[in-house]
Specification:
Blueprint (H helix, E strand, L loop, with lengths): L1 H26 L2 H5 L4 H13 L11 H18 L6 H32 L4 H12 L3 H11 L3 H27 L7 H11 L3 H11 L1 H16 L1 H20 L12 H14 L5 H24 L3 H7 L2 H28 L1
Helix pairs in contact: 1-3, 1-4, 1-14, 3-14, 4-7, 4-13, 4-14, 5-6, 5-11, 5-16, 6-7, 6-8, 6-16, 7-8, 7-12, 8-10, 8-16, 9-11, 9-16, 10-11, 12-13
């Protein structure tokens, strides 16, 4: 009986693995590269296409394998994501970038939660959308999803919002910079780009279009935002546990706080990577494996998301994302233009 369950789970995992391989293949196509769509984004699109076409033909016994990919493999992927970062990167850009990143992350997440309440929208979707907009797009949403244990379709909706607005920014930023609308020096433009674009891939795409000097700063500033995922996940986990304790009134209203250990692991990996003990080719290999694992997680989430669930979510998540998008551009620009010079 146990072997049958393992076999059924393996079928689900293999299905997601095949879709992830296809996502990597499609991600190498020129037009996909021009859009700076990572394999993770391609993966969730493939998963959603599958969910809305052939999913009804999937044996129920395969579902645990898909859920394994969207939960366990996701957490491993988040931990290994730390091999892309070092604490030396933080020191390289200095105080202005760190301070502006902290303001952007804090105001975007808290503002998004508040606006979500005003719009009377689902709290889970509002939180995921805000974290995705404020930190690092899909990777942040995946981390938060694993912490608050939201339904897969809510994650897919939130990812969709950051993909749409992040992709728009990736094309708009270089245009506005080259025509003089963004009147910032190269270093400050790099800080602005890294502090406000949604995805790491979007930051790389926009930065490269504006020049190497801007791109180098933008990527480092973006990675500092990624590091801020750890305290955000710890606070989110604490608040979620408190809310659940009040609702269920377990153990006299007190419930054990669920610590997202994968977030601690993520931070520990960053610390280890800062010592530069591994050869670069091994680190590059680990990063490729990590991208594949995160692609599997995204594909699995997509496979559990139907169009009906998008309709259920309605237009409010995209309205929230649009408001946050305007804040990131306008608020981020003003912060960099007037605050960064004062801190330098």
């Amino acid at each position: 009986m146990i072997s049958e369950k393992r076999s059924s789970m393996l079928h689900g995992v293999l299905l997601i693995t095949l879709f992830s391989c296809a996502a990597f293949y499609i991600g190498e196509m020129n037009f996909v590269k021009e859009l700076s769509f990572s394999p993770m984004i391609v993966g969730i699109i493939l998963g959603m296409l599958y969910a809305n076409s052939l999913r009804n033909n999937l044996p129920d016994t395969w579902v645990p394998g898909i859920q394994f990919c969207s939960k366990r493999i996701l957490r491993i992927g988040i931990i290994l994501y730390g091999f892309r970062l070092t604490f030396q990167d933080v020191l390289a850009v200095g105080l202005p970038a760190i301070f502006i990143d902290a303001i952007i992350v804090t105001t975007t997440i808290l503002g998004g939660i508040l606006i979500g309440r005003m719009l009377k929208m689902d709290r889970g979707i509002a939180l995921l959308t805000s974290i995705g907009s404020g930190i690092c797009g899909a990777a942040a949403i995946l981390g938060a999803e694993s912490t608050i244990q939201s339904k897969p379709y809510k994650t897919a909706v939130a990812v969709s919002t950051v993909v749409i607005f992040g992709t728009i920014s990736m094309f708009i930023y270089p245009i506005l910079y080259h025509n003089g609308t963004f009147a910032l020096p190269a270093n400050e433009m790099g800080i602005f780009t890294g502090a406000t674009l949604h995805e790491v891939a979007h930051t790389v795409g926009a930065g490269n279009a504006m020049g190497k000097e801007i791109s180098n700063v933008a990527i480092i500033v973006k990675m500092i935002r990624v590091m801020m995922l750890v305290p955000v996940l710890l606070i989110t986990s604490y608040m979620a546990s408190r809310a659940e304790a009040k609702t269920q009134k377990q153990n006299g209203g007190m419930k054990k706080i669920q610590i997202p250990w994968f977030a601690i692991g993520f931070l520990a990996v960053i610390g280890f990577n800062s010592f530069d003990l591994l050869p670069q080719n091994l680190t590059a290999f680990i990063n490729n494996v990590d991208t594949f694992l995160l692609t599997m997680a995204m594909t699995a989430l997509g496979a559990e998301t139907s169009i009906d669930k998008f309709r259920k979510a309605g237009a409010k998540p995209f309205i929230l994302a649009a408001i946050l998008y305007i804040w990131l551009i306008a608020g981020g620009y003003l912060l960099v233009k007037y605050l960064a010079p004062a801190l330098m």
